[in-house]
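Translate sequence into structure tokens.
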Amino acid sequence: MVKQIVLSQHDMPESWYNIVADLPSAMPPQLHPETLEPMTREDMLPLLPAGIVDQEFATERWIEIPDRVRELYQIWRPSPLYRATSLEKALGTPAKIFFKYEGVSPAGSHKPNTAIPQAYYAAQEGVKRLTSETGAGQWGSALAFACAQFGLEATVYMVRASYNQKPYRKMLMATWGATVHSSPTELTEAGRKILAEDPNSNGSIGIAISEAVQDAMSREDTKFALGSISNNVLLHQTVIGLEAKKQLEIAGEYPDVVIGCVGGGSGYAGLAYPFLYDQLSGKRTGTKFYAVEPEACPSLSRGQYAYDYPDTASLGPVLPMYTLGHTFMPAPIHAGGLRHHGSSPTMGVLAQHGLITPRTYSQNQIFDAAVQFARTEGFVIAPESAHSIRGVVDEALAAKEAGEARTILMHVSGHGHFDMAAYDAYLAGRLEDFEPTESEISTALESLPDTKSLV
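Result follows.
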């Protein structure tokens, strides 16, 4: 039995897959944050590099990957696909479990798949500096790495809860030359406003985005880079699923179930969208797609499908998404990368049509599965990825109960080597579970812009 399936670098995708071309219904337009009129290409150019703006509005199915980007991808791509035979045995399941492992990148996660092209297009335009947010530090680490490859400065606003929980992430960013701030800060108007209201704020991805946007808009040599949600970001991540399709072909398999963790949705989209292409085109039908969220921030499960801002200060383009409200303040869970209040627009459309189904788990539930995975397969994975494992364990046990041989494919978005404090808290019985009340969600949803007639 083959344990690992590895492609040659000649097998690496030459184009990204753009699911916008195949959505079952048209995606509502992005809106200008001030006028609430449809955003134009020109509206976005002050904030993002022109090449990224073009991809944000692109409707063609395949977009060629630049040679320089493919060259840098080859540092770690193609990433391996593993068969989780030891986990299968421990569960006693007839299911076959495969996982695409993105922890092999220099930054330790899937995030460089989009950081490299974003830095590339910025450098092509003569940009000198990029600013961004980061939750758990995975995205910030990837952007710092990418900027180092192109000689760009990087300034990262890291959510305070994760800044304190994950010191090695900020050290890694600094090693690559990035400047890292604990968000909220006194450096921006958005940060100062939050601190005036709550000096002990744990921060959020929405707040960090606001700070990074204000920073970028204050300097002519600077652009903003976003780690998830946007069409261009999800586009870049599809190298994951395109590789996985080739690897499963070698194994003679096709997934009955595709599972991954979801915050903004870029990592899961990267794995799932190439398989959803088969579903949408009618080439293969019957595959189920499960997006696993933290119980503490369940945008797809308990959010409202509406237009909302991606950031707390209402500065970014207004997006159609499943949202808990841009003022929602998630609990300081260790899966910091899944603490965004809203989903990506394309994922929202797919969820609306029932093509993606959400599942939610608590911190203790996901670490139950993560520790079992470490003790069977050997990989200590990020808390975000632990949500994928929990979903897979439940699916594999359901296959056992039904006596069905299912092929399950999951996304392991990154390693957990800098997340050992979370594992320590779990093993010592100190890990708290958080679930927002209906009142907390409804209060945050009151902040939605008045665009109900447009959704």
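Note: The first helix runs from residue 41 to 44.
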